[in-house]
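Here is a complete protein record:
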Amino acid sequence: MQITPMCVPCLLKRVTFEAELNDKKKVAMALKAACKVFGERYTGKECSADIATEVHRAAYRAMGCKDPYHKVKRQSNEVAKSLLPKARKILARSRDSLTTAMRLSIIGNILDFGIGMKYHGPKDLITHFDSLYDEGLGHNDIPKFRHLLRKGVRVVYFTDNCGEIIFDGLLLQVLRDMGVKVTVVAKGEPILTDATVEDIKRYGIDKLVDEVLDTGTFAVGVDMKRLPNKVRRRVREADLVISKGMANYESFSQSKIHPIVHMLRTKCIPVADSMGMPKDISVIAYYK
């Protein structure tokens, strides 16, 4: 996805948020570093995820912090774990386990902070869980790709946020029960609220899949130019790629990787407009 003018204040808002999480005295330093990146690189033609990567890299360095979201990520995982029994009951009662598991997985995508949403912290998920599930899917392409998910099919699953990965586990179990072979790809280094391989293993998600790999580097979304060869090979061999979250959408929408399913909450106007969707809906979008 190409960056839009609306992305600039959003990124600066997020830099402010993460700097305040780390050290409020370093907010100005972080913003100055971020603005320098915009001054040097912004033309309005770049991939939004690529610019975001450089903005956050500069801000992290200015703060002298490798993981300003550390506490928020841990809290997100614990809040999601507390909701897991409820989610499992919903799934157990469902007549369509695939659709239900995907809906539950997307609910966790709201665990993304600092971009001006109405959800201000991990505990907000407890308050809004039922309403988000009852809301259902604003866009549902499951009927278009359901036939692809059968025994022996190879899927590469790119994860997104901490907390969200707990609900991803429900979907990964459903895929395993269907006989699908899954490679999960998490972040190679801490970035924003995204899950790393360490998070995947800490919460047992690795036991639900055939293989766990990482994106290999610090990047918002996926740095296509620096993706490890093994991940490239798995994507090339895959019958289907599943991409969670907006940043991954921003990266993959610039690529020729297909077929791909994007599972996300349209949390901002630029992403919603790029997908041709309304803002603030849960989306399962299939690109053949």
Strands lie at 139-140, 154-158, 181-186, 211-214, 240-244, 260-265, 282-287. The two ends are 18 Å apart (CA to CA). The chain has twelve helices and seven strands. The chain has a mean pLDDT of 94.
